[in-house]
Design goal:
By secondary structure, the chain is an alpha/beta fold. It has 16 helices and 16 strands. The chain folds into three domains: about 270 residues, 3-Layer(aba) Sandwich (Rossmann fold), CATH 3.40.50; about 130 residues, Up-down Bundle (Four Helix Bundle (Hemerythrin (Met), subunit A)); about 50 residues. The strands form five sheets. Strands 5-4-3-10-11 form a five-stranded parallel sheet, sandwiched between helices. Helix 4 crosses helix 6, helix 4 packs across helix 7 and helix 11 runs antiparallel to helix 12. It binds zinc ion (ZN). The site of zinc ion has 4 residues, from loops.
Length: about 475
């Protein structure tokens, strides 16, 4: 079955054709680990997780690399300002390395809570310094670089004729966008740093020797170098937030294609923002929404995931607690309905299952239409499909949407059972246990019937008995 994806480069929905049959290589730009991720950042990773699950559900083998930016990401995209890592270190009075470790751990815990499948490999930028230097050297040999004294090695964007193609920018737009920042000796407004020199008057915590002087790599070069190292010089999908299109990914293409001399990425897939009432969510004001804050307010992370999947990854989404309340109710409703029939699903009807599966995949494969898949889930719950087939299909929905439906519905079912068993029924079950121990089976059977009359089923287990509603 065809998979359709919106490619930012062609600006249209395309039928996905892999480089290698049955396999897909994905590089996603990961977090800068200087602070907590806000829930808008996390939306991108959830959307990318759906993309990955879509390929898995279609039988693909997925290779997924995600970087961890632990050096070189400056507070301004124009290569001015401070390294975000050093800023985090000063804010918290810890070393940059401790900051990186701490926020990497928090990030890993966040994505686990959101049921995001782990990447094949996570690549911290500080572990690929030699590869980054090597790529800068190649660009230098090809004549794409120049040095600004006391600042760094820069990329000359006028040398790359396709510069700005991904974001559809022409030179006028680039000039307009960079007007404020264009003052530090760059040859062209869009030029960017490949290697920054350490300041002469202060020692940085993270710095390395290079052919051009002690310093640290630019943010853009890290992703290009790690992607080339881990995946090779062609890849199927490169993905990130929409804010990466015009600078970060545009620069990545400019760094790689002159070196490899052919098209690098077949599909550029970008995920839209989450807005709060004031507009695009950002960390700059210091007060931002995190997953832990949602948890404190009584919203499980999986409910936040469900909330995200109700919208297309290509549409901006507004966040409010009212909307999240609505999603929570809707998710709990799904669990309640599922808990009423969920079973092992081993004896399912293959024909019915396959016809639903084809429908689900066709919906999903249409540029990751998660909202459409959720509508199908609701249709299934309303349908008269038998419990086994329904259960098997809910497992399939879980594989695709990652909403822990089976696990949470089973937990709900068990809680419902323990809470609602009356004392009278428990006493009868205890009495029956004694009767059985005394081999008084007539009495035991009588008690079983009594329990049944009260609406409960008693079953013998290894350690005694279990009770559940009829
Ligand atoms: Zn990146």
């Amino acid at each position: 079955m065809d998979i359709k994806l919106f490619n930012t480069m062609s600006k249209q929905i395309e039928i996905f054709k892999p480089l290698k049959e049955g396999e897909v290589s994905i590089y996603t730009c990961g977090p800068t680990v200087y602070h907590f991720a806000h829930i808008g950042n996390l939306r991108t990773y959830v959307s990318q997780d759906i993309m990955k699950r879509m390929f898995l559900a279609n039988g693909y083998k997925v290779k997924h690399i995600m970087n961890i930016t632990d050096v070189g990401h400056l507070t301004s995209d124009a290569d001015t300002g401070e390294d975000k890592m050093e800023k985090g270190s000063r804010r918290e009075g810890k070393s940059v390395w401790d900051i990186a470790k701490y926020y990497t751990d928090v990030f890993m815990s966040d994505i686990k809570k959101l049921n995001i499948l782990p990447a094949t490999k996570y690549t911290p930028a500080t572990q690929y310094i030699a590869e980054q230097i090597d790529l800068v050297k190649k660009l230098e040999d090809l004549g794409y670089t120049y040095i600004i004294d006391g600042d760094g090695v820069y990329y000359d964007t006028s040398k790359f004729k396709d510069y700005g193609k991904l974001g559809g920018q022409n030179l006028d737009e680039l000039k307009a966008g960079a007007r404020v920042e264009f003052s530090n000796g760059k040859r062209n407004v869009a030029d960017f740093a490949l290697w920054k020199f350490s300041p002469k008057d202060a020692k940085r915590q993270m710095e390395w020797e290079s052919p051009w002087g002690v310093g640290f790599p630019g943010w853009h070069i890290e992703c290009s170098a790690m992607c080339l190292t881990e995946i090779g010089d062609s890849l199927d999908i490169h993905s990130g937030g929409v804010d990466h299109i015009k600078v970060h990914h545009t620069n990545e293409i400019a760094q790689v294609e002159p070196v490899i001399k052919h098209r690098w990425v077949n599909y550029w897939v970008h995920m839209e923002f989450l807005n709060d009432l004031s507009g695009k969510m950002s960390k700059s004001n210091g007060d931002f929404l995190t997953l832990s804050l949602l948890e404190e307010k009584g919203y499980p992370p999986i409910v936040y995931r469900y909330f995200l999947l109700l919208a297309s990854y290509r549409k901006q989404l507004n966040f409010s607690y009212d909307l999240l309340d609505g999603a929570k109710k809707s998710y709990e409703n799904l669990l309640k309905k599922i808990s009423e029939f969920i079973c092992s699903g081993e004896d399912f009807n293959k024909d019915i299952f396959n016809s639903w599966k084809a429908n689900i995949l066709e919906t999903l494969n249409n540029d990751m239409n998660t909202a459409g898949v959720i509508v199908l889930l609701q249709d299934l719950l309303k349908s008269d499909v038998d419990a086994d087939t329904k259960s098997a299909l809910v497992k399939l929905f879980d594989d695709i949407l990652g909403l822990r439906l089976v696990e949470n519905a089973l937990a709900l079912k068990n809680t419902a059972n323990t809470i609602s068993i009356p004392e009278e029924v428990k006493a009868l079950a205890e009495e029956r246990l004694v009767a059985k121990a005394n081999k008084d089976f007539v009495k035991a059977d009588g008690l079983r019937a009594k329990i049944l009359d009260l609406g409960f089923v008693v079953e013998d287990t290894k350690d005694g008995y279990s009770l559940k509603q009829k």
